[in-house]
């Protein structure tokens, strides 16, 4: 069976505002991160903490980041879908893919429990055939193992699958797994993601079903 695997943050949903709010909640300077830091948010909690500490002008080490990270996760867990929104047309495209016989799955570097919580809060978890998080396996993207698991658990074939993502990590995952990648252009980097040389650029979700049919023909 053909399968389309989706990244979550920055691909299916804009989670940046809630991620940044969680980081600000555990930084000593308060709201030092803002909407312009969305790209950093999509690179994870530790990336936001490093930027926040640097912006505060204070000396910090990775030990400070490690100590604050669980606090950030707890803050995020408590307000995980306050501002988060699915990108326009995302779920409509997923439903079209399913009607056309594709399996659909998620492979994210968000911790599994948080990803499950978010998807259920958004009311879309049951739409997807499988979900692999950052800690589901001992490795995470761009290692190909989580991607392969996301395909196989959904009932798909890796050789007839593709990844939809938004970052260099997703592009590298596709190379490692030997599958085509479509990178969305409606995230913080816009069309700048073209430098990662994906198989395709996705400007709007309405185009995804036809794109998937072409890439997996």
Automatic annotation (TrEMBL):
Q: Using the UniProt record, name the top-level EC class of this enzyme in a single word.
A: hydrolase
Q: Which family does it belong to?
A: Belongs to the HAD-like hydrolase superfamily. CbbY/CbbZ/Gph/YieH family.
GO MF annotations, alphabetized: phosphoglycolate phosphatase activity
Q: Name one GO cellular component term.
A: cytosol
Q: Which GO terms describe its biological process?
A: DNA repair
State the species of origin. Answer: Tabrizicola piscis
Q: What is this protein called?
A: phosphoglycolate phosphatase
Catalytic activities: 2-phosphoglycolate + H2O = glycolate + phosphate
